[in-house]
Amino acid sequence: MSSATITANGHAEHSDHHGPAKGVKRWLFATNHKDIGTMYLVFSLVMFFGGGIMALIIRTELFAPGLQFIHPQFFNQMTTMHALIMVFGAVMPAFVGLANWMVPMMIGAPDMALPRMNNWSFWILPVAFCLLGSTLLMPGGAPASGWTMYPPLVLQTGDAFPFLIFSIHLMGISSIMGAINIIVTIINMRAPNMTLLAMPMFVWTWLITAYLLIAVMPVLAGAVTMLLTDRYFGTSFFLAAGGGDPVLFQHIFWFFGHPEVYIMILPAFGVVSEIIPTFSRKALFGHDSMVYAAASIAFLSFIVWAHHMFTTGMPLTGQLFFMFTTMLIAVPTGVKIFNWIATMWRGAMSFETPMLFSLAFVFLFTIGGFSGLMLALVPADIQYHDSYFVVAHFHYVLVPGSIFAIMAAVYYWLPKWTGRMYDEKLGKLHFWLSTIFVNLTFFPMHFLGLAGMPRRIPDYSTQFADFNMYASIGAIGFGMSQLLFVYIIIRNVRGSGATATAEVWEKPKGLEWTVPSPAPYHTFAEPPEVGGDKAFS
Amino acid sequence: MIRKMCLGAMLALAAGAASADFAVNMPKGVTELSAETYALHMEVFYWCCAIAFFVFGAMIYSLIKHRKSAGYKAATFTHSTTAEIVWTLIPVVILLIMAVPSAETLIKLEDSRKPDLTLVITAYQWKWHYDYKGEDVSFYSSLARTSADARRKDSGIDPFTVENYLLEVDNHVVLPKGAKVRVLITSNDVVHAWWVPELAMKKDAVPGFMNEMWFRAEVTGIYRGQCAELCGMDHGYMPIVVEIVEPEEYRAWLTDQKADAS
């Protein structure tokens, strides 16, 4: 702790600086949750473009039948790296960045509970991704086994293999430390009188997500370590010749993997639960119900994993069990959708950019949910599995799902971070372009899958040509539209835009709107008064 | 540029390369279970459409009606236990309705007792090996030469001129109509998967393990599929072609195969 003396009235006086440090040191040694949040968000935006470029390489090759641009092995490297970067480098760090910025303010805490660990949680990530990215230049190239890294195929990876494993370990450590920080902060540092059920939904969903992270990231670490020892240290966890089973990896991976996708969507649910009430000028419908639904989803997420494995040769009982539990997850998810619509219902809505992205989330995530329900039915899944139908499903829940929620959050809270409004016209343009192109990209993929096109192939039979072309056009359009997002943010950060008030929007609920915009470097050095007529969620 | 494209398209059409028809939906297929699978798929799809009608309908209505700009004043209700119960129970009921046919079809899918013949499939990087159990007929099946030539980068061959581009092999899997075929499948190297949409059958080929599936094709014809589990560089280039023929034709084909082998 920096030197601090407690004065007579109980305030701690700091004899060091009041504002942030200058230069590189500010960022390298950051312990301020706002600075760390900013770094996570900038990092995730850069990764989003990196993963996006890989997606464009993929869609360019898939524009027409025939192999025009890249070698099939490089294509597999692109699909693998695209997913690893988007999952671990774009979506997850973005939500952690939002948590860092907003959770302390939303609960009236001065910072995260463990600020130095917070610094390491962030700085591990650029190292991990430099390591992973460098594999593209190694003999044998980057990993090309898909982000799911199934053995024995993944064991055929070239020199990149240990770097893949090590970078995943680093990402996992970052996530686990971040999750610990979040739980400790939320449990211990809430303003007095803020009971758990009184917390805002974004804080709730992050509390639940943090528990999921702690539960499953170590499982992933175990799985990839077993891959490492199978390759280098003579074990046979996944090698049948030595008495092991490749399908064992799939069980362990998906025991991580399924909660992982809920890790990527629960904070999005939280964001949308903050934004829709504000722009409906009406409290979130069924707040307690929303908490229970999120908790149910988290619990159920642990008992559905093998729905990724219906074609592996599972016994009938297993297939029936996982089919029923997977179908069951639709119930609390549906409850949340209905509660959002009930929030809008008979509200007085306005459609600023954060609201537009949130509404598109509700609509398009629901479509992703429908294809998810279809995938749950085993006999039908026999036809869908490993086809473009699956690709359509998960991109609908991840792109107009998670990514749109992240963008909604950025538009919603950016004026709080910088003190200036972003350009609303440009924001709306970004929204419409993104929405149109995201649907053009991913909706045709449902049909491609149903028509029989498998996934992870660099070339395809000619009857799949038209819809692949539409998807590729959509992808290029979507990618270009994100440049507008960067432009809007940079313009705002550099100083243009109307001055934002503390409230920014019209009477939003939440402690973050009680501090000035831009939020001071240190907020809530004193815990705020909450409860009674000072509603904050 | 446009003229070149039009010319190319006309030539492709003139060359008359056949491919599967353009499709937007799962095929009904040629087995009893493929039809049940299709029916299940359509049933859940219609349920989703119905739910979407109500849910999105309510949402769109609200977006239009409940706007500040139209002067609408926000209500103040914050919860309703009745609503929560209703919109929890209705989905549960819908799921129960869907669960029954799903479980029934699944149980049938898993019942591979009393097969008429057994086919042992071994997956390789990147081709298939077929072994007709008890018949002493076995062969490899790889991507056909026409596709193999055209698939190369800068091959100069337009895929639209290739018959069944990427879906043709040198040796078809010939099987008799109406026979219950039990498939035993494994792999020689990494995990692959054998998938023929018209048979509604897909199973992983796992090295060191034997998986099992079955089908009974009721219509003669040629049915094409692909490997459905990423298996390396040429994952997209190891298709499957099943030819269902009349039983006499199958027996004649078997005899030919054995003659060729000896």
Question: What can you tell me about this protein's structure?
Answer:
The complex is a heterodimer of chains A (537) and B (262). With 537 residues, chain A is mostly helical. Helices cover 64% and strands 1% of the residues of chain A. Chain A contains 14 helices and 2 strands, in the order E-E-H-H-H-H-H-H-H-H-H-H-H-H-H-H. Chain A has helices at 24-28, 33-61, 72-107, 115-134, 161-188, 201-232, 246-280, 287-300, 316-344, 353-376, 378-384, 388-418, 424-450, 465-493; strands at residues 4-6, 12-14. In chain A, strand 1 and strand 2 form a beta hairpin. Chain B has 262 residues and is of the alpha+beta class. Helices cover 37% and strands 23% of the residues of chain B. Chain B has helices at 2-15, 32-65, 81-109, 145-150, 247-261; strands spanning 117-124, 127-132, 137-141, 173-176, 180-187, 192-196, 201-205, 211-216, 221-227, 240-245. In chain B, the strands form 2 sheets. Chain B has a 5-stranded mixed β-sheet. In chain B, strands 4-10-9-6-7 form a 5-stranded mixed β-sheet, covered by helices on one side. In chain B, a hairpin with a 2-residue loop joins strand 1 (117-124) and strand 2. In chain B, helix 2 runs antiparallel to helix 3. Classes of the chains: A mainly alpha (537), B alpha+beta (262). At the A-B interface, helix 3, helix 7, helix 8, helix 9 and helix 10 of A face helix 2, helix 3, strand 7 and strand 9 of B.
